[in-house]
Design goal:
Elements (H helix, E strand, L loop, with lengths): L11 H16 L12 E6 L5 H12 L3 E5 L13 H8 L5 E6 L4 H8 L4 E6 L5 H15 L6 E5 L6 H10 L6 E5 L8 H11 L2 E5 L2 H4 L5 E4 L10 H7 L7 H4 L7 E3 L20 H22 L37 E3 L5 E3 L8
Parallel strand pairs: 1-2, 1-3, 3-4, 5-6, 5-8, 6-7, 8-9
Antiparallel strand pairs: 10-11
The protein binds N-carbamoyl-L-aspartate.
The site of N-carbamoyl-L-aspartate (NCD) has 11 residues, from helix 2 and helix 6.
Length: 359
Amino acid sequence: MKHLIDPTDLSKQEIDQIIALAEDIIAHRERYQGSMAHKKLATLFYEPSTRTRLSFTAAMMELGGQVLGFSTPQSSSAAKGESVQDTVRVVGCFADIIAMRHPIEGAPLVASEVSRVPIINAGDGSHSHPTQTLTDLLTIKRELGHIDDITIGFCGDLRFGRTVHSLIKALSRYHGIKVVLIAPDELRLPDYIKQDVCEKMGVEYRETDSLDDAIPELDVLYMTRVQKERFLDEDEFDRVKDSFVLDARRMALAKPKMAVLHPLPRVNEILTEVDEDPRAAYFRQVENGKLVRMALIISLMEWKNDPEHTMPEHEAPIVNPALHCTNAKCICNNEKHQPRFRLAENGIMRCWYCDSKVR
Ligand code: NCD
C-alpha cells in the first residue's frame, strides 16, 4: 500500500504520472466524475485549514465519492486524549482513504504505520506538506510548460514554511533546478534541507536577503507567509513579520514570463495590486490543488493492492535510549512513541519522525 507522508514517498515517475493524470482530468473532466462512487475519504484536521481541507472535499465530491471527518481536534476524541494511531485505526473502519493535518510533526507518519487504508499527509507542523507540492508542480508545469531547468526563488519564511521544504525535496529530483533562498537570518531554510536535499542531490542554491537583487533571474517566485503560529517568541515574530512585500514596483524588475506562486493564505506579503498581473498564478494554483488531489486520490486507490507501488525502502531506524529529539513539537515528544533516528548527510543524526537535530 502507498501512503503519502513525504514527497519522496512517491518516485519521480509516480509524481509525473499524477501530474499527467491531473492534466487528463482537466482535458476530460466528465470521464472521472463517477470514478470514486461508493468510496469515502476521511479528512482529519487537527489544525486550521481552508484550501487544503475544502479542496480534498471538493476533489472527492467531484469524483462521485463521499467525505466524512472533523475540522478541529475539539470535535474529535483527541480532546479525550486518544492517540493518533488509535484514531486512524478507528477511522480506517469507516473510510477508504484518509487525509490528515496535524500541528505535531511526524503525526501522519505514525498514523501510516498502523493504518489499513492510505494516509495522506495534509501538513504536519512546519515539517512537510506533500499535497501542496503536487499542486505547486502542476502549477509550474501549466504556467511555464516544464518543470526541469528553472530558477526558483523561495521568499519569506523558509524556516517554518512546510510547503517550501516539501517543494525543494521534490524539485531536487528534476533536472537543472537552481534555487535562490530569499529570507532574513531568522527565517532561513533548515540545515537538513540544505544538507540532506540540496547538497546531496546536487541542487545549486544560494542565500540572499534581497528580493530586489534576486527577482530578475527567476522563472518562478514562490512567496510565503511568515508562520505566526509556529513562533515561540512574539517579539521575534514582530521583528520579521514584514520582511518582504511583493508589489508592482518589484514585479517590474522580473522576467515577463515569471510565475508568482503562493500556497496562500497571504497576509501582507503580496499587495493586491499584483493580483491583476498575468504572472500572478496563485489563484490558478488553488484550482490546481483540487485537480491534483483528484488525481492523487484516484492513484492511491488504484495502487492500494498493487505490489508495483509500495512505500520506498529505508534503512532500519536507529534506536538508542541515550539520544533525544530536540523538537518539542515532534510526535515522539508528545505521544508515547519510541524515539528513532537516522544517520543523515555529514554523519549527522536526525529524528526519524521530524528530521530535527538530536541531543
Ligand atoms: C499552507 C500551509 O498550511 O502550510 N497553506 C496551504 O496549505 N495552502 C501555507 C500557510 O499556511 O502559510
